[in-house]
Design goal:
This is Peptidase M20 domain-containing protein 2. InterPro entries: Amidohydrolase, Bact_exopeptidase_dim_dom, Peptidase_M20, Peptidase_M20/M20A_hydrolases, Peptidase_M20_dimer, Xaa-Arg_dipeptidase. It holds the Pfam family Peptidase_M20. The chain starts with 18 loop residues before the first helix and ends with a helix. Helix content is about 40%, strand content about 15%. The chain has twelve helices and twelve strands. It folds into two domains: about 20-190 and about 305-410, Aminopeptidase (3-Layer(aba) Sandwich); about 190-305, Alpha-Beta Plaits (2-Layer Sandwich). The strands form three sheets. The protein has a six-stranded mixed β-sheet. The protein has a four-stranded antiparallel β-sheet with strand order 8-9-7-10, with helices on one face. The structure holds zinc ion (2 copies). One zinc ion binds near residues 111, 155, 365 and 366.
Length: about 450
């Protein structure tokens, strides 16, 4: 799916990708394409779950060092994270290509993060080659900083949240990545997400002989889920609350003294999530504890994921790049996609774009079918087209300061979501402080 295309961008500053630049990028892809596919296949064949991505980390950082990038590791305390940089001239934009490379438990690369890694690396290498060619020819306007950021643990670990906290994204003019999916889509917003756990503690007793002496922790868990079920009637339709009971007791003849709920609460707006929905879900658990006489302990086990905010100017660039690739896109979603990504946390502090690149129409991600496609010919097409799409987008930003200004003016700063918080109250306080500070 890399046919040539005559369509020119109708972007905000009237900038289109110069035909010479596009030809150089395409020639670059011909030169490095097989290497990128080798990296994609290798990561696919060695699936590693969150924060254990040592094979992918070694492969990507070794390649970047060989290509002349300065590589920094262990960012935000994560030993499979990295930030690689190649600097050309003075000034110019700092553009980051974001890689993910973690797999899912049980089904390997069912989210296709091997494709994200290879396409992100490829986009950076293509732009680097182009800049070096321009400099060799003595052309101006090629100053800039090419950054590749390796972000582990996207699937449930919130790796980017720790890296945001470490300041890894602060100096960027834009952070761009692609994600494989069931359609081509230039940009979408997602839901913010808070993960909660509720541990109820009661008193064990023989369930038949002395039931009156027991305090039933399972009853508290069941009441919580029933209360959440009723609460859903009064929640906005774009809010999601879903939970499992991970521990509900051991045997029927002992009243359970412990139960454990793991819940995700999601909403498109962080203020609605923190100030309205999450407190009401917590009240369901508190009410259940009161009704049953149990104690409830609330924890936030993983970093909150902020809602993803695509930059509209970057979205237009990606839309035109899709056209050049000969890929038909679906219309932008009217509502937030009802999932979440830790790229949302990045999108609150710098301009980002997170387009979907189709593997197969209508594909459900996180499935065995997605795993199979991510390692096959469809996955290879997504790697090559993804690398070119990212390189085309970055090249336009590199070549046009006016376009970069448009990206900056379209950016609305959000909340710097913390990676670790002790309580929902702390999270709300941090959010409220930043709101009042005008962030
Ligand atoms: Zn996923
Ligand atoms: Zn994913």
């Amino acid at each position: 799916m890399t046919s040539t295309h005559d369509e020119t961008s109708t972007c905000h500053s009237g900038t289109s990708l110069a035909p010479g630049d596009e030809a150089s990028l395409r020639a670059g892809l011909t030169a490095i394409g097989d290497d990128l596919l080798g990296i994609s296949h290798s990561i696919h064949a060695h699936p590693e779950i969150r924060f254990q991505e040592h094979h992918a980390f070694e492969l990507l950082t070794r390649t970047l060092r060989e290509e002349g990038f300065a590589v920094q590791t262990d960012i935000g305390g994560l030993d499979t994270s990295f930030r690689a940089e190649a600097v050309y001239g003075d000034g110019g934009p700092t553009l980051a290509f974001v890689c993910e490379y973690d797999a899912l438990e049980g089904i390997g690369h069912g989210c296709g993060h091997n494709i994200i890694a290879a396409a992100g690396l490829g986009g950076a290498l293509l732009v680097k080659r182009l800049i070096e060619q321009l400099l060799e020819r003595g052309e101006h306007g090629a100053a800039g900083r090419i950054v590749v950021i390796g972000t582990p643990g996207e699937e449930g670990g919130g790796g980017k949240a720790y890296m945001v906290e470490a300041g890894c994204f602060d100096d960027l003019d834009a952070a761009i990545m692609i994600h494989p999916a069931g359609e081509n889509l230039s940009g979408m917003s997602t839901l913010g997400r808070v993960a909660l756990t509720f541990e109820f503690t009661g008193t064990p007793a023989h369930a038949a002989v002395n039931p009156e002496r027991g305090v039933n922790a399972l009853d508290a868990a069941v009441l919580t889920l029933n209360a959440v079920g009723l609460l859903r009637q009064q929640l906005p339709s774009d809010v999601r609350v879903h939970a499992v009971i991970e521990d509900g007791g051991d045997v029927p003849n002992i009243i359970p003294s412990r139960s454990f709920i793991r819940a995700f609460v999601r909403a498109p707006r962080t203020d609605v999530l923190l100030n309205d929905v999450v407190p009401r879900v917590i009240n369901c658990a508190r009410g259940a504890a009161l009704a049953t006489g149990t104690e409830v302990d609330l924890q936030l086990p993983t970093p909150p994921y902020a809602a993803l905010r695509p930059n509209p100017v970057l979205q237009d660039l990606v839309e035109s790049a899709f056209a050049r690739l000969g890929r038909t896109t679906v219309p932008p979603l009217q509502e937030a996609f009802p999932g979440s990504t830790d790229m949302g946390n990045v999108s609150q502090i710098v301009p980002v774009i997170h387009p979907n690149v189709e593997l197969q129409t209508g594909l459900n991600m996180h499935s065995q079918q997605a795993t199979d496609l991510a390692g096959g010919p469809r996955g290879d097409e997504a790697v090559l087209d993804g690398a070119l799409l990212l390189a085309m987008t970055a090249t336009q930003l590199l070549r046009s300061p006016a376009l970069l200004d448009d990206v900056r003016s379209a950016f609305v700063p959000g909340v710097r979501t913390p990676a670790t918080v002790d309580s929902v109250e702390d999270l709300r306080r941090i959010f409220a402080q930043q709101e009042s500070a005008g962030n």
